[in-house]
Amino acid sequence: MSDERSVLAAELFKHALDRPAEQRATFLDEACAGDVGLRRDVESLLNFNTEGDGFLEQPAVEIAVKSFLHGALKPDQSIGSYKIVSQLGSGGMGEVYLAHDEKLNRRVALKLVRFGIGTEETARQFQREAQILASLNHPNIAQLYGAEVTPDGISFLVMEYVEGVRIDKYCADNQLSIRDRLEMFRRVCGAVDYAHQRLIIHRDIKPANILITKEVEPKLLDFGIAKLLDPEASVSGEPTMTFAAAMTPEYASPEQVRGETMTTASDVYSLGVILYELLTGQRPYRIKTRNPAEIARAITEQEPARPSTVVARDSKNSRLLKGDLDNIVLKAMRKETHRRYTSVEQFSEDIRRYLEGRPVTAHTDTLAYRARKFVTRHKAGGAAALLIMLTLVAGVVATLWQARIARNRAQIAMRERDHARTETTKAQRLNQFLQEMIGYSAGTTPGSPARAKGRDATVIDMLDDSSRRVETELADQPEVKAEMLSTIGRTYMVLAKYDKAATYLREAYQANLKLYGPTRLETATVMYALANLSYLTGDYAAAESWFDKAVAAYRLHAKDANFELRQLCAILSDAAFVMRARGRLNDAETLWREALSYAPRTPASYRNNLIVNKSFLAQLYLDRGDVSKADAMALEASQQLRAVGNPFPLAQALIDLGNVRRFQHRYPEAESLIEEGTKLFSKSQGEDHPNVAFGLTSLSAVYYDERRYDLAEQDARKALAIAEKSSKTSHVYARASGMLGRILTATRRPAEAEPLLREALNVLKSRVPRQSNPMATMLGNLGECLAVQARYAEAEPLLKESYEIVKTVHVPQSPVLEEARQHLVSLYDAWGKPQQAAVYRSPNVSAVSK
Fold this sequence. Notes:
single chain, mainly alpha, Phosphorylase Kinase, domain 1, Transferase(Phosphotransferase), domain 1
């Protein structure tokens, strides 16, 4: 009998012992399913247990018992260089122990193999296979360190010890939303796809093999172990349940239970079953017996119910699952391998498309379906998409119609009898435009990029098309054209397409200036947009100029009873940002406090939006190094904004509070707050928005302070990549570049750091005044880089200037001031100038120029 059958006999023997003697025959009828040889071996074990005779004369039973007793290790017992701590569990293929690796001084998990290694060649093959699996290096895969065989023939695997909760229990205990479950599941898919690309199949994917760590990261266990322990598992054979599948039948694929060749599609199927369970809380098949024939029949013949029908009692989840998620899960679980997703990557990609509101490949592709997905996506897709829908559907469409109405206004006035006919024509034109928009998205409109490229139209594609139409259709309507140029320019700005935004906004400004003059609200609105655009691209001087004009115009209109004060509050707040960037902190504080002063006179629904100004004031206090004042204001802002639930201002407030916590050396809190804020920015504005780069740079600074330089560099590079896409002359770009340069300096790569720091400094030189906090920071960073290279004479003036600027701007107790002072002490110590070092060693240093 094969080792597999021996172990199966031992397992059935254990289960039979758990039952009263009179029930064992019935149990064996079901479990052995007519396999006479298997039943005979189990009965032999039972007889030996009862009578104690003849056991050792039966070779098959001997192997099974040895397998069964093989791994009973005790605490403090050693096996190789590993000391056993405790037993973690026992499964069909062996016991698992927590052990201490005495060579490398680390905790590991040891899995003892329940069947022996027969020949020397088999032992070598076992270790070679394990080495291949040990090459998997992915953050969501538990590392297999290797395999060992002791001189007395005990074989075991050495694995990373993972402490966590199985994924299904974690999702249930924490009541994760459908979206959160899908996002976590996609990380699992990423791990499986990584292994598949290296031609390694898991073969035993199940919730017990996916643990969620305390860092809320999934870890996939036992990758490829089933193949390692059962080399024949992938060979076609009899249509019976393999041993590995018999241990966890609920997640086995049809081909697996039939004993057919397993491929990556088998892992796709198992993942589909897990997703089914995560979304519904139930398994797709009701398997009540361990009878191999019954298990195989259920998995190969039964069709699982649609997930949405399984949770029908929970109407909310049923609505969420109905449609795309039903189709995604069931496509992964197709009986025929060729009808499943062709890869785990494709499976995960369909889930991503669902999360983004895009059409999924699991759904029949129809125009109506794509239209519905497009509208849904841009209705709820965050600030940018929402603005686009409002401006394009309610703006472009309506305005184009206004143009047509204007052309026919005389005729309508003269022929009132045709009014109804004209309204009908207007409705038809609006319907036509909307159909063209949807057809553009679906790729059915001739000439559309979606049709040419075979994909969904992006928002940018649609906006570009609308821009061209406005230019041609509104040429004879200057007022309407000016309004639409402004709308399109502001929409491009929301999407961080700054060059296009500038083109349309400048054209809109010239048109409005000619039509209305400099103080009309139409002109002021475009000036406001140009001011914000200048700020986003780092041209703070231009931004200040635009804001000066726009704020003056808005204040004039504030006297009008019909004017909404919230417009004035918004521009005051944005203007304050520019004052802050220009180093005029007192002016910035005055503007933010002016905005807050209007709160009692604004509608209740808008007052919550003014809370964010408290967060901005917290940033300003941090610029001065006044940490205690910044903490109080940032904490108040984040608490109030969290209660309101608006993701965009809350994201900013959380990052601000996180930056305060960083200066207080409360790093775990800082990390958590900034991560949360960055994720909110990413969800509400898109992964490539400059605000995401801002959050990542802040997170990088936390890691830098903790000396976790690998993580700091990773996030700084991400931030820099995002910033490069929008503008290489912005403050966000300079901040990310400077942060990366500082990390490279700290990790002894100053030659790489220096060009980044000089580039960042050059960006700031043309954007902010010399006497400003950003300049002080960058001068100090470059000075540090030069000092590390022992270029002390070059570093000295930079570090001294940085210190003098900080001393002018910051309060005496500022941690930044203390840091700048310490940099000078370190410089002079390294330079061998103890007298100069002594001057700065005292906390109470007056202005010095030595």
